[in-house]
Amino acid sequence: MSDDPTRAAREDDRVPLDPPSAAESVSAALGNAARRAGLDPAKHTSTGAAVWSAMGGVRGILESVLPSLAFVVLFTVTIDPETRQGNLWVSLGVSVGLAVVFTLARLIAKSPPSAAIGGLLATAGAAVLSLVTGRGQDNFVLGFFTNGAYGTAFLVSALIGWPLIGLAAGYLLGEGTRWRGDRRKRRAYTWLSIAWAALFAARLAVQLPLYFAGDVTALGTLKIVMGLPLFAPMLAVTWLVVRALHPRRES
Predict the structure, then answer these.
(1) Each residue of 53-71: pLDDT tens digit?
(2) Residue by residue, what is the 3-state secondary structure of the chain?
(3) Could you tell me which residues belong to the region Disordered (predicted)?
């Protein structure tokens, strides 16, 4: 055994560190995504400020609502009584055009364009699908897959004992995955994740019948109503529960 402490230190330095576990990697990814979305406990002390930041303020709300609203209104007012179909080129063109304007505005203002670019890609992809099929209701198909994927992820994570809400909150609050050892936190995060899964499932349960019925106006209207108006209260409840589980002196 060597008596040279510096040699021992050098040997220790050569020992590779254990790679992060899959749970820690997922936790970090979710936490960073939440922080980029505006949910940062270090910056926001009030629930209202956190929710408003996550929605992107006035600009974020307009980017989220206006393209869909424009499509629904223009499609509805241009419906042909015989075919019962609106003018796809006009309604989709204005919808995509608004998304382009929002993206350019962010680029010009040198503000983070990721949300607007994501919205633009989703809007353009949905428009292409709808134009290919010639059916207005197909403008909402991508949203069904998105809701299904999110809902499944939240539900499965809760069922296997690694709720996504806990993974994100653990990273944001510097707790890692230690919350799994606290029965109260684990139960709360599990039920919150199930609640989010229920939200996405409710959207599908309400909107899919309208899609198969071909009722574009009702489908588009409910998509907007079940968007931010439901997202904001759910986010507020989640924030309040997480903050209650982590008193300020602890976090």
Answers:
(1) 778 788 888 888 999 999 9
(2) CCCCHHHHHHHHHCCCCCCCCHHHHHHHHHHHHHHHCCCCCCCCCCHHHHHHHHCCHHHHHHHHHHHHHHHHHHHHHCCCCCCCCCCHHHHHHHHHHHHHHHHHHHHHHCCCCHHHHHHHHHHHHHHHHHHHHCCHHHHHHHHHHHHHHHHHHHHHHHHCCCCHHHHHHHHHCCCCCHHHHCHHHHHHHHHHHHHHHHHHHHHHHHHHHHHHHCCHHHHHHHHHHCCHHHHHHHHHHHHHHHHHHCCCCCC
(3) 1-22
